[in-house]
TrEMBL record:
InterPro entries: Acyltransf_C, Plipid/glycerol_acylTrfase
Cleaved signal peptide residues: 1-23
Family note: Belongs to the 1-acyl-sn-glycerol-3-phosphate acyltransferase family.
Protein name: Phospholipid/glycerol acyltransferase domain-containing protein
PANTHER family xref list: 1-ACYLGLYCEROL-3-PHOSPHATE ACYLTRANSFERASE-RELATED, LYSOCARDIOLIPIN ACYLTRANSFERASE 1
GO CC, any one term: endoplasmic reticulum
Zinc recorded as keyword: no
Domain Phospholipid/glycerol acyltransferase: 51-162
Native organism: Syncephalastrum racemosum
Length: 302
């Protein structure tokens, strides 16, 4: 898993290079350390060993950039991302995919609890990205429930996140809230229409900066026992998130101030030569197989 993660970071670094602009409350990171690795300074983010991350869902490549944040925190081997059921079979970099069914998720999280291993559990409560159809469904849901619809996010669904928090219980103390914004998108555009996975990785159309505003909440302070109260709590967080997105589209950045920290981090391997060498060493056993398949292919079709 860690090797594949490094490979993913290398793809971003060399084919669609970007810099994170991270803003956060002062207490969001346990620490931010700059260390010297083979003569080069690297800023590493330090999160707790076990966290749950919730994020707004702007584009299908959101998970790629969250994985890069995890790499900078040296947590890329602990990542689990819950995707919508229609995406569960995508062959995306060995991603530990969980279809959105209750038994599957609970069993997986129970095993993680028993193992005591580190965990980054990532969820997108909106369920999918903004499109013409999902915008209409969000609006209809808001009207049906006598709510105001958001403008730059979809209304979140609380069931999956609540289930995960209750299953993990006291073993996971922190819920991190990532609000992601991409420059180069007009307020009237759907982000996925601007930055597609195909465009990012194959057509050279990618965001040069990815803005992430980070907040965190102690799980003991989150009302997970009552479904209705938790749904209201999550909806309030998404109203705040939508206001932050409104600010982002007006100013090209998230709000900043004396109580906020900001750090700019380029997406890059901590040690490109060592990390890439490890990747290619892992691929060496497959070279004879690739050569054999190539020979067979040319023999049949050459």
């Amino acid at each position: 898993m860690r090797m594949w993660s490094q490979n993913l970071v290398a793809l971003v670094q060399y084919f669609c290079p970007t810099t994170f602009v991270l803003t956060c409350d002062e207490n969001c990171f346990d620490k931010m350390a700059t260390e010297d690795v083979f003569g080069a300074a690297h800023t590493n983010l330090a999160f707790p060993d076990k966290i749950v991350v919730m994020a707004n869902h702007q584009i299908y490549a959101d998970w790629v950039y969250i994985w890069c944040v995890a790499y900078m925190a040296k947590a890329h081997g602990a990542l689990k991302i819950i995707l919508k059921h229609s995406l569960k079979n995508l062959p995306i970099y060995g991603l530990r995919k969980l279809a959105l069914d209750q038994e599957n998720i609970i069993n997986n999280l129970e095993r993680t609890k028993q193992s005591g291993n580190p965990l980054w559990l990532v969820l997108f409560p909106e369920g999918t990205v903004i499109s013409k159809d999902t915008r209409k469904r969000s609006k209809d849901f808001a009207e049906k429930n006598n709510m105001n619809d958001n403008r730059f996010t979809l209304l979140p669904r609380s069931t999956g996140l609540r289930m995960c928090l209750n299953t993990l219980g006291e073993t996971t103390e922190w819920l991190y809230d990532f609000t992601i914004g991409y420059p180069g998108i007009k307020p009237t555009e759907n982000p996925e229409d601007v930055y597609t996975i195909r465009g990012i990785f194959f057509l050279g159309h990618y965001p040069r900066n990815v803005h992430v505003h980070i907040r965190r909440y102690h799980t003991r302070d989150i009302p997970t026992q009552d479904a209705e109260v938790f749904s209201k709590w999550l909806h309030e967080r998404w109203v705040e998130k939508d206001k932050m997105m409104d600010y982002f589209y007006k100013h090209g950045r998230f709000p900043s101030g004396q109580q906020l920290r900001r750090v700019d981090l380029p997406v890059q391997l901590n040690n490109s030569l060592v990390d890439l060498t490890q990747i290619w060493i892992c691929l060496l056993p497959y070279v004879p197989i690739i050569k054999l398949l190539s020979t067979v292919y040319h023999g049949l079709f050459g």
